[in-house]
C-alpha cells in the first residue's frame, strides 16, 4: 500500500470518527439548550447566556457535521479509486501468470466479470466500513456514555435490547443473504461468460446460423440470474420487515418509559427531548448498520470469485526461485528432452518417455500426424505446462531451474494460431521488447514479407489490427508473428507451422529470412507441409507422443516408413493440384 493511500485512509477514518462524535453530541447540546431555556424561563425570564452558549454549540456541531459530510465523499472516492487501481493491477499480474490449464477451465468473460464483481464488492466494503461502520460505532458509543450520565437505567436497558434485537436480526439476515448472493454471483458470472463467448464468436455463429442457439443460451443464463436475485430480495426484505417490527416495539416502550419518568419528576423536559431524539437517532445508525450488514454480506459474496482467482497458484518460476536464474540465454543452447512424459489429463499421455537431443545451433523438425503431440512439445519448452515426468535441459541446465521470464526471453516463438493484441501493427511486432527502433520493426516486417501489406494500409504501421487481429488475413497475421519472432533474434527459435497459411512463393522467401536470422540459434520447427522442413538437420517423426522415425529427409525417404508415406501423399497431392 503506497504512502499517499495510507494518508488518505487515515484522513478519511479521522473524519469518520469526528463525524460520528458530532452526530452524537448534537442532541446533548440541544438538551442543554432546552433545559437552559426552560430553567431560565421558570426563574426570571430567558437568560441569554444559558441559551446562547448551548445554542451556539448546537449550531456549530450540526454545521460541522454537515461540513464533514460534504468533504468525506471526496476522500472516500480518492481512497476507492486508488484501491481499485491497485486491485486491477494485482488481478492482471496474477491472471497473466496463472497456469494455462487453470485459465482454460473458464471463459475469459467469466474471469473479467469476477474482477468487475470483486471491484463492486470492494467498493461496497470500503464505503460501508469508512462511511458507515466507523462513524456509527463512534456515535453509538458516545450516545451510550451520555445516556449513562443521564441516569436512566430503564432507557439504557431498552436501548440495549433494541440494539441487540436489531443486530441479531441483521446477523441472521446477513448469513442467509451471503448464501443467496453466492448464487447471484455464480449466475452473473455465467451470464457474462456466455455473453463474451457469443461476442467473440460472432462470425462463426453467423456463418453457421447459430445466432438463436446463442440467444437462447444467454436467455437461460439470464433467467437463472433473475431467479437468484429474486431469492436475494426475498431474504433481504424479510430481514428489513423484522427490523421494522423491532423498531415499532422499541419506540413505543421508550416513549412510554421516558414520559413516565417526566411525570414522576426523575427526568427533565430536556431529558425527554434528548431521549426521544436519541431513540430516533439510535434507530437511524442501527438502521444504517442493518443496511450496511446487508450490503457487507453482498460485498463479501461479490469479492469471493475474485479471491478465488487470486488464491489460485501462479505457474512456478515467477517468484523466489527466479532470483537464482542464470539470466537470459544469449548463445544457441543444446536442448535435451530426457524421459519426457506429459498429458493434459491424468491417464491420457500425449508425450510418452521421449528422449531427444537437439545440438546447439542446429535445426530440428518435428513432423507427424495431427494430435501426435508436436505443439505440446513446444508448450513444454515454454513451460506453459509441466511434464509429469522427465525434464528438459538447456546446455545441461533443467529449464525448471530457470526463471520463467528468462527462459521465455531466450525464445522467439511463431505459434500455430496468431491472435494479436487490439493494437497497432508496430506494437504487435515489437511485443515484449521494451525499446525498439522503428527501423528495426520495418526491417523485420520486410524480412517477413509484410512490408507491402503495411504500405498499402492508410495508417501503415500505426494501423490498429482489431480484436485478436481480425482485421488482417490469416496469412498476414502469420507474417506479423514471423516479423515479431525475427525481431527478437533469440537463442532459440520455436516455430509451430510458421508458414501454413502462406502461398509457396511467400513461404520460401519467409523461410529464407528465418534461416538467415536463426543461423546462430537452435531451432525447433513443427510442420505438416514437409517441403518446409526437408532442409532441416534432423527430422523427427512423432506418432502418439513417441519418436517413430528420425533422420534427414533423404535417409527417411530411404527408410520407406511413415515419413516416406506422408511425403509421397503430399507430392501426389501437389501434382494432382497442378494438373487441375
Ligand atoms: N489444453 C488441452 N487440454 C486437453 N487436451 C489437449 C490440450 N491441448 C491439446 N490437447 C490434446 O493433446 C493432443 C496433442 O495435441 P498437440 O496440439 O500437441 O498435437 P499436434 O501434434 O500439434 O496436432 P496438430 O498437428 O493438429 O496441431 C491432442 O489429442 C489434443 O486434443
From TrEMBL:
Pfam short name (any one): ABC_membrane
A GO molecular function annotation here is: ATP binding
Origin organism of this chain? Pelomonas parva
SUPFAM superfamilies for this protein: ABC transporter transmembrane region, P-loop containing nucleoside triphosphate hydrolases
Full protein name: ABC transporter ATP-binding protein
Q: How does it sit in the membrane?
A: Multi-pass membrane protein
Q: Which InterPro entries match?
A: AAA+_ATPase, ABC1_TM_dom, ABC1_TM_sf, ABC_transporter-like_ATP-bd, ABC_transporter-like_CS, P-loop_NTPase, Type_1_exporter
Q: Which domain of life is it from?
A: Bacteria
Chief subcellular location equals membrane
Q: Where in the cell is it found?
A: Cell membrane
Question: Is Nucleotide-binding among this UniProt entry's keywords?
Answer: yes
UniProt KW Ion transport keyword: no
Which spans of this chain does the record mark as coiled coil? none
Amino acid at each position: 500500500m503506497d504512502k499517499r493511500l495510507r494518508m488518505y485512509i487515515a484522513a478519511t477514518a479521522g473524519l469518520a470518527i469526528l463525524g460520528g462524535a458530532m452526530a452524537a453530541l448534537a442532541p446533548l447540546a440541544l438538551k442543554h439548550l432546552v433545559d437552559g431555556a426552560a430553567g431560565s424561563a421558570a426563574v426570571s425570564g430567558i437568560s441569554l447566556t444559558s441559551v446562547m452558549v448551548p445554542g451556539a454549540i448546537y449550531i456549530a456541531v450540526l454545521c460541522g457535521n454537515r461540513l464533514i459530510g460534504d468533504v468525506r465523499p471526496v476522500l472516500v472516492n480518492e481512497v476507492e479509486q486508488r484501491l481499485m487501481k491497485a486491485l486491477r493491477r494485482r488481478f492482471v499480474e496474477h491472471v497473466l501468470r496463472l497456469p494455462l490449464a487453470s485459465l482454460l477451465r473458464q471463459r475469459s468473460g467469466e474471469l473479467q466479470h469476477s474482477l468487475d464483481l470483486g471491484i463492486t464488492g470492494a467498493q461496497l466494503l470500503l464505503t460501508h466500513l469508512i462511511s458507515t461502520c466507523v462513524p456509527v460505532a463512534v456515535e453509538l458509543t458516545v450516545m451510550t456514555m451520555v445516556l449513562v450520565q443521564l441516569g436512566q437505567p430503564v432507557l439504557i436497558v431498552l436501548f440495549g435490547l433494541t440494539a441487540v434485537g436489531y443486530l441479531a436480526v441483521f446477523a441472521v439476515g446477513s448469513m442467509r443473504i451471503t448464501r443467496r448472493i453466492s448464487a447471484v454471483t455464480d449466475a452473473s458470472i455465467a451470464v457474462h461468460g456466455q455473453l463474451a463467448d457469443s461476442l467473440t464468436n460472432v462470425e462463426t455463429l453467423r456463418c453457421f446460423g447459430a445466432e438463436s442457439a446463442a440467444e437462447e443460451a444467454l436467455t437461460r443464463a439470464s433467467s437463472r440470474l433473475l431467479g437468484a436475485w429474486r431469492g436475494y430480495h426475498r431474504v433481504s426484505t424479510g430481514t428489513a420487515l423484522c427490523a421494522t417490527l423491532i423498531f415499532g416495539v422499541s419506540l413505543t416502550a421508550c416513549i412510554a418509559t421516558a414520559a413516565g419518568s417526566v411525570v414522576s419528576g426523575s427526568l427533565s423536559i430536556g431529558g425527554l427531548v434528548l431521549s426521544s431524539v436519541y431513540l430516533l437517532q439510535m434507530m437511524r445508525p442501527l438502521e444504517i448498520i442493518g443496511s450496511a450488514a446487508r450490503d457487507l454480506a453482498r460485498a463479501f459474496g461479490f469479492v469471493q470469485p475474485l479471491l478465488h482467482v487470486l488464491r489460485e497458484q501462479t505457474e512456478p518460476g515467477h517468484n523466489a526461485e527466479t532470483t537464482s536464474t542464470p539470466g537470459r540465454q544469449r548463445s544457441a543452447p543444446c536442448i535435451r528432452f530426457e524421459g519426457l512424459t506429459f498429458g493434459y489429463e491424468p491417464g491420457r499421455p500425449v508425450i510418452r518417455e521421449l528422449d531427444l537431443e537437439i545440438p546447439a545451433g542446429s535445426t530440428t523438425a518435428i513432423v507427424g500426424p495431427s494430435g501426435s503431440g508436436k505443439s505440446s512439445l513446444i508448450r513444454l519448452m515454454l513451460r506453459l505446462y509441466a511434464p509429469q515426468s522427465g525434464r528438459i535441459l538447456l546446455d545441461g541446465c533443467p529449464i525448471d531451474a530457470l526463471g520463467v521470464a528468462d527462459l521465455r526471453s531466450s525464445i522467439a516463438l511463431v505459434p500455430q494460431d496468431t491472435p494479436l493484441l487490439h493494437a497497432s501493427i508496430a506494437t504487435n511486432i515489437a511485443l515484449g521488447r521494451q525499446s525498439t527502433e522503428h527501423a528495426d520493426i520495418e526491417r523485420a516486417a520486410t524480412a517477413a514479407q509484410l512490408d507491402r501489406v503495411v504500405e498499402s494500409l492508410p495508417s501503415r504501421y500505426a494501423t490498429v489490427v482489431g480484436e485478436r487481429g481480425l482485421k488482417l488475413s490469416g496469412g498476414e497475421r502469420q507474417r506479423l508473428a514471423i516479423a515479431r519472432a525475427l525481431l527478437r533474434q533469440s537463442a532459440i527459435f520455436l516455430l509451430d507451422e510458421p508458414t501454413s497459411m502462406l502461398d509457396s512463393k511467400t513461404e520460401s522467401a519467409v523461410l529464407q529470412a528465418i534461416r538467415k536470422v536463426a543461423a546462430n540459434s537452435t531451432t525447433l520447427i513443427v510442420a505438416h507441409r514437409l517441403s518446409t522442413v526437408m532442409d532441416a538437420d534432423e527430422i523427427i517423426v512423432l506418432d502418439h507422443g513417441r519418436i517413430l522415425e528420425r533422420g534427414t529427409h533423404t535417409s527417411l525417404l530411404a527408410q520407406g516408413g511413415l515419413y516416406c508415406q506422408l511425403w509421397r501423399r503430399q507430392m501426389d497431392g501437389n501434382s494432382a493440384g497442378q494438373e487441375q
